Amino acid sequence: MDGSPPHPAAHRDPGPGPGRRDLLRLGTLLAAGGLAAAVPAALARADTATGGGGEVTTTYRGHSPYGFDQWASVGFDVPDGVRRISVAAAFDPADGVLDLGMFGPTGFRGWSGGARREFTLSGSDATPGYVPGPIGAGRWSVALGPIVNDPAGMPWQISVTLHHGPPLPEVPYDVLPGAVPGRGPGWYRGDLHLHTVHSDGGRTTDQLVAAARAAGMHFIATSDHNTSSTGLSWRGNVPADLLVLNAEEVTTRHGHWLAVGLPQGEWVDWHYGPADAGVFDRHVRQVRGLGGLAVAAHPMTPAPGSFWEFGLDRVDALEIWNGPWTLDDAANIAVWHGMLCLGQRIAGLGNSDAHGPADAVGEPHNVVHAAGLSRPEILDALRRGRSYAAENTGVTVDFTAAAHGATAGPGEELPLALFEAVDVTAEVSGAPDAVITLHTEWGVMAVARTGGDGRGRLHWRGWGRGSLFARAEVRRLKPASTTLDQLVAVTNPIWFHAAGLAPYDAGQRTLVAAVRAADGSWGRHTALPGVQGTPAVAGVGASVAGLPDGTVLTLGLGTDGGLWLTTRKPEGAPGPWRRLSGPHGRDGGAFLDAAIAGFPDGSGEIVAVAADGTLHHQRVTAAGTASGRFRPVPGDASAGGRAGGRRGAVRAAVAALPDGSAQVVAYGTDGALHHRIRRTDGTWTGWTRLTGRAGAPAFSGQALAIAGLLDGSAQVLAVGLDGTVHHRVRRPDGTWTGFRPLPGAAAPAVAAGSVGIAGLPDGSAQVAAVGRDGTARHCTRRPDGSWTAWARIPGPDGRGAFRAGRIAVAPLPDGTLHLAAVATG
């Protein structure tokens, strides 16, 4: 007898199946990376005791200093005849955590992190997380990852027991099938981030398979922390109806990432950080070379070691939704969206990160369109973004874009000509009482609601290359643990340009200003100077307001969602930009849309849609400083009100009236256009849903603007979901005209992606619009209600065309018209 703990497999005939001896030989190539960063631990002393049955125990006592990012090892020699190694650790949890692992002469032999304080391994069995196999003579090391929160450090003790005896038989493992037979092209559901007892999970592999079947998954990936042992544990229990992908969650001290689709037994090292030049990229190449996928896991989680520090553009995909929806996931999506706006094609994934039996597998999961239910086909589809993430298997999203007789879905290209229309549709089921939103790099373009039956449809028409991509989200307007809403589904984008053709540079989307003189002539465009000396400021939105003394307030919405304000006094240059605090006074708050209007008393009013979809407002002084902070605009049930009486919106505009009141129009989360008045005493009227064209109960659209005139009327411009521009007047007595389309230059209606309107002292309304060809045009509504013809706004050099993505205009008392726009080159 060798004194080893008994194991039921100790006397089994190994039978057919892959052995581990050849596999472990490969570890010599990996050991150099795994132990290179682990310095020998500072040992106080080592005591050895001999027990019965051929056991020899050596106890090593050491001390680790305060710190998080440190690795150490305890080395020991193993003579011939040892058949089992057992390790036990002791430390005070009040001092920190001691992660554990093992390396042998042939390389990696296991990792349990902080999930266990003891483990054992032999040729026939091993504690989950550790690789069974021959106990070869030579130098072995217990790998340590001390996380010490006590400034005085953490003392610890490692006991290594060597069990001598006759050789133990090796136990073979089963090879996971690479495909589920008989499954061709279609949509498949799968969860790529799952843990078992081989790391810190509470399920065995058999229990995980049962949970995946119960959740309706077609494929899963077992992704335990820093170990390859999960893939070597399949013995007679390989499922035939579920595709199991072998994976590892590579858990560094600088971010976690999923190596998905690894061959069984393959191990990826984790002992490195961003300062180790080229190491991370080498391991990503290793995974890709094996046909796998590198995914940044929960990258914006602010916990130590979880927050991503390696650069998000160096992986194949981002886990933008990890487990139950939280504020961390909202940050993931915001960062991912910013990358998409730069033309970076990186897939977004959703996984449950389920650990214990109480964690639901597949909530959320990925719905993937693949050529078949096989490892290479699923991974290829995921890499290309041919997927969307859903909170459960009851949710489906049919997201498509159609143009020139072709149709594309998530992850596909639909290259457009400059003047070409594109129709984007999202059909949703299984999501009762939710909101569907369509996003491009210009923000939320359209919104629709689902009914109590869970079904809903959104349609939007865009023009030409006005957008790089489109993607859809479905949200439930009910609070979660840390958010005011809950994500139900999110799609990867459909791209409107070919991968081999560079999209227009997002850095060229600069904020510019121009002036139209009272005689109708246009001055040259001026790029607004950037922040901290940069030559220009990049943005995705712009608004402008004129004050009675000739001051111009310009509002810019940055590519990061920041809201910036600058002031230009008469005959002066624009002043420095000031970033406005976010909702509730937080610094660095992000917004989706914003507009500003100027009042007769010299103040301005800003309305802004926060990142969580709530509408806020704030007063600013003529000097461009905030007179308070953003406060929620009250909501009500008829206008898609949010929890706590807040108003939900996706786009908003504001107009100042001569009596000092303000009128606000907004596309609500119900997909309809609403109107509200803030009285001069600061109180609000209720929201009114505006009827649509030709008696339709509502008007839905993608862009809007409002202007107040001296007679107390207000004029509204709204771009419908079909891309055409409509006009409506609210008379001084509060009654409305109906919506009418604006006539085009050579068509009964004009199409546009952005509009601005301003009322001049002579009673006219000046209109600017970005047409479907991406160029800006101008026309005038005369006081008698007739319209002038459209004319191009000249380009920056005073000639040619002015290309823009967003546009706004504001009047001054001298009859000039001031324009603010996001130029696209």
Automatic annotation (TrEMBL):
PROSITE patterns: TAT. Residues 10-20 have a biased composition (Basic and acidic residues). Residues 548-795 form the PLL-like beta propeller domain. Residues 1-20, 625-645 are annotated as: Disordered. Pfam families: DUF8189. This is CehA/McbA family metallohydrolase. It comes from Streptomyces toxytricini (Actinomyces toxytricini). The lineage of its organism: Bacteria, Bacillati, Actinomycetota, Actinomycetes, Kitasatosporales.
